[in-house]
Amino acid sequence: MPAEIRRAADRAVTTTSWLTSRHSFSFGDHYDPDNTHHGLLLVNNDDIVKPAAGFATHPHRDMEIVTWVLSGALTHRDSAGNRGIIYPGLAQRMSAGSGILHSEKNDSATEPVHFVQMWVVPDETAIPPSYQQHHIDDELLTAGLVTIASGIPGHDAAITVHNRAAALHGARLSRGASVGLPAAPYLHLFVPRGRLTLEGVGELCGGDAVRFTDTDGPRLTADEPSEVLLWEMHAQLGGSAP
């Protein structure tokens, strides 16, 4: 079970007057040719946006963009006429497809918003842009891994992504709670907050990530209340599974 641990402190950071963004992979001005993706996942940004601020209207193309809010609320608007307020427990996906413009702003004038945004490639380019959001009950998120987004045939997911080899799972684990990770050619485990013990690896804390190749599904146990996001991937960029 090859596993590469990426600690929180080792992430590149973009800081502006209104944004603190920590990047798991190369992003923007932070380019590392040895850290461009894992499996099908190209972006895993851990963002905090100050009140009454956010990303002005900007373009995207040929990308499946999934946003998961940890605290606060984020307002989404796009050129296809979609508008949504994303809050904790609401799964949201924007398919940029043939091209779309969108903005993301903190919905609060007094409180910051903290969210993770993840990008995976679609199976096909130039598909029609689309938007989807769906609320996931807290009872499901605290009961174990729940599938937030998936394109894998047969998966029951809150929202879909246009990639038949990728799925995002998440959980909010109480102290002592344990879950088994799925077996897959590629897994990307990200800990937005908390402290956990991963079988065969050891302690993970908020901001840490683990990249697995050919994993057989180790167990993860929370040492304190924690939240996890896990990408299960059965292919990699430019090819199939190993």
Q: How would you write the strand order of the largest sheet?
A: 1-20-17-22-15-13-14
CATH architecture label name: Sandwich
CATH superfamily: Jelly Rolls
Strand percentage, roughly? over 45%
Strands, count:
24
Report how far the terminal alpha carbons are from each other: 13 Å
Task: Walk me through what this model shows.
There is one protein chain. The chain has one helix spanning 138-141, and strands at 3-6, 12-15, 19-23, 41-49, 54-60, 64-71, 74-78, 83-86, 90-95, 100-106, 113-120, 130-135, 146-150, 159-160, 166-173, 178-180, 184-193, 195-198, 202-205, 209-215, 219-222, 226-233, 235-236, 239-240. By secondary structure, the chain is mostly beta strands. The longest helix is centred in the middle third of the chain and has 4 residues, at 138-141. The two termini are 13 Å apart. Its cofactor is Fe cation.
Which characteristics define this entry?
Jelly Rolls, RmlC_Cupin_sf, 1 helix, 24 strands, seven-stranded antiparallel β-sheet, mainly beta, 242 residues, globular
Secondary structure elements and their pairing?
Layout: E1 3-6, E2 12-15, E3 19-23, E4 41-49, E5 54-60, E6 64-71, E7 74-78, E8 83-86, E9 90-95, E10 100-106, E11 113-120, E12 130-135, H1 138-141, E13 146-150, E14 159-160, E15 166-173, E16 178-180, E17 184-193, E18 195-198, E19 202-205, E20 209-215, E21 219-222, E22 226-233, E23 235-236, E24 239-240
Parallel strand pairs: 13-14
Antiparallel strand pairs: 1-20, 2-3, 3-4, 4-11, 5-10, 6-9, 6-11, 7-8, 7-10, 9-12, 13-15, 15-22, 16-21, 17-20, 17-22, 18-19, 18-21, 23-24
